[in-house]
Design goal:
single chain; 7 helices; alpha/beta; three-stranded antiparallel sheet; PvuII Endonuclease, Chain A; 9 strands; about 220 residues; four-stranded mixed sheet; 2 domains
């Protein structure tokens, strides 16, 4: 069978919805007693990719570290207890213009059953955040407000340093000039500075389905 290359986000959203539904009622003996969130996340990512690869070509090896290179998508799996994860730091501009790829987010609640010695991962929320919306909420909001109020490069650079954006003066000037020519979209992640970006997802879960580019697959507001 010739597999179709998976490039359309609409197809990925439909497949993610089916996966979340089936996984949420699956009794899993392999994860019983497992408390390591990274192990749970790796399991769920691999299982979803294996499901996709039965039907679609997803781009071979994970180019640029992405789980689904053909659709420019990275999969993030996180517990409802603290919906966050990390991702590689490439440049400070990611906080303003986004990560450069789409995010498929699965937020789960794990429950173990001592009687059956199985675990169930209830996928409470699944959201696809398009790459244009993966910037930092506060940083992009402040920048867009500066531009509305006719701010200049000096105003933008002051904003960068006030909010501890990891740039030196030369980088800050170049970034400010780019923003004046190419204003960023409003982002909806919370991105904390670290050796790796720390991504927090509470806002995208809350806003899913209400903002263009934040696609609700399952769950949403409680």
């Amino acid at each position: 069978m010739i597999k179709k290359k998976l490039t359309e986000l609409s197809i990925l959203i439909a497949e993610a919805e089916k996966f979340a539904e089936s996984e949420s009622i699956f009794n899993n003996s392999a994860l019983y007693g497992v408390t390591d969130g990274k192990a749970v996340g790796t399991y769920l990512e691999h299982k979803f990719k294996e499901q996709l690869e039965k039907t679609y070509e997803v781009g071979g090896s994970s180019a640029n570290g992405l789980d689904i290179p053909s659709a420019q998508v990275d999969i993030k799996v996180t517990s409802i207890k603290q919906p966050q994860s990390s991702c590689p730091f490439k440049s400070a501009s990611q906080k303003i213009y986004g990560l450069g790829y789409n995010l498929l987010l699965f937020v789960y609640e794990k429950k173990d059953d001592p009687q059956t010695k199985t675990s169930r991962l209830n996928i409470l929320h699944s959201v696809l955040v398009e790459k244009e919306r993966t910037g930092d909420f506060q940083m992009t909001k402040i920048i867009r407000d500066i531009l509305v109020n006719k701010g200049n490069a000096d105003d933008l650079m002051a904003c960068f340093f006030d909010r501890n954006l990891p740039v030196d003066e030369i980088e800050a000037k170049a970034l400010a000039e780019k923003i004046l020519k190419e204003p960023p979209e409003q982002g909806y992640l919370t991105i904390s500075n670290a050796l790796q970006w720390r991504l927090q997802y509470a806002r995208v879960v809350e806003m899913a389905g209400e903002i263009s580019g934040i696609n609700l697959i399952r769950g949403g507001r409680q």
